[in-house]
Amino acid sequence: MPQTPGEIRWPARGPGIVGRAVIDLHVHSNASDGTDPPASIPELAVVAGCAAVALTDHDTLAGLPAARARAEEVGIELIGGCEVSCAFSGASTHVLVYFVDHEEGAFHDELAGLRDDRVRRNRLLAERLAELGIPVSYDEAVALASSEESLGRPHFAALLVDKGVAESIPDAFDRWLAHGRPAFVPKARVLPRQIDEAARQSGGVCVLAHPFSLELPARELDQAVGQLAELGFVGLEANYASYPPGERRQLADLAARHDLVATGGSDYHGTVKAGLSSGRGRGDLEVPDDVLERLAARRP
Ligand code: AMP
Ligand code: ZN
Ligand code: FE
Ligand code: FE
What we know:
Layout: E1 22-27, H1 40-47, E2 50-55, H2 64-74, E3 77-86, E4 93-98, H3 106-131, H4 138-144, H5 153-162, H6 169-177, H7 192-201, E5 205-208, H8 218-231, E6 235-240, H9 245-257, E7 261-265, E8 287-288, H10 290-296
Parallel strand pairs: 1-2, 2-3, 5-6, 6-7
Antiparallel strand pairs: 1-8, 3-4, 4-5
Bound molecules: adenosine monophosphate (AMP), zinc ion and fe (iii) ion (2 copies).
């Protein structure tokens, strides 16, 4: 019978990789659009055999205190982080920021502005759905999230499935919510330079998340990564759980060319992203723990 976190005596030993500790540097909780509460994140990572896990919710550090408290109880290192959408080259640029669990300061202020904009965007999104004749209200969507500020498109997607206007969450994005689809409303996005400066002022570092989301041809991606490295970015997410081995190697080479740390993570979101587990991704994720040491060595 599979173990659930509630049945495990802490500290537990997960399967891990024999003789080698692994980590997960990209995980979401229901402080943004994941489905697990922040305190469950360290538990799941321990079960997966991780020595450290970064909580990287979208635009918010709100889950960190609860996650940190539980991490201490279950004996795992918790890295304070978050994921921010930036205005940059190509289709979509997400930035992972690490070592920023402060309750005030430049980075905190930057996130507060983004959260206000998220509320604005979500209200417009609900209005857009109503105009399209889809009976989904803003309040209904908020009820599904843990707060107004944690509401994201995956919650709207789940409601669209419930209402029978989409077959699955990916289908809800394809039909309604993705960029260019009828209910798409853009969010404000900061510049990579802004987010890197704010992160540094708060003692943090920036890493380019899932670099193929930029949807750039190899040469242009190389140039874009070079620009980010010049701005002060310290890493790129090469071992991204949803990328096949060849793409991960390609990104590790790209990181090496620009003297960036090749990081990695699952992008676990709980039940809204099927088939992914924290720490193990789709079963083949192995991010070695020395990645964290190399990242920490680049702190300002
Ligand atoms: P938001 O920040 O509210 O715009 O929502 C972003 C979230 O939507 C991210 O966590 C993505 O994982 C998810 N997402 C974006 N595009 C898609 C897609 N095409 N299919 C499924 N999930 C998506
Ligand atoms: Zn998300
Ligand atoms: Fe992302
Ligand atoms: Fe993510």
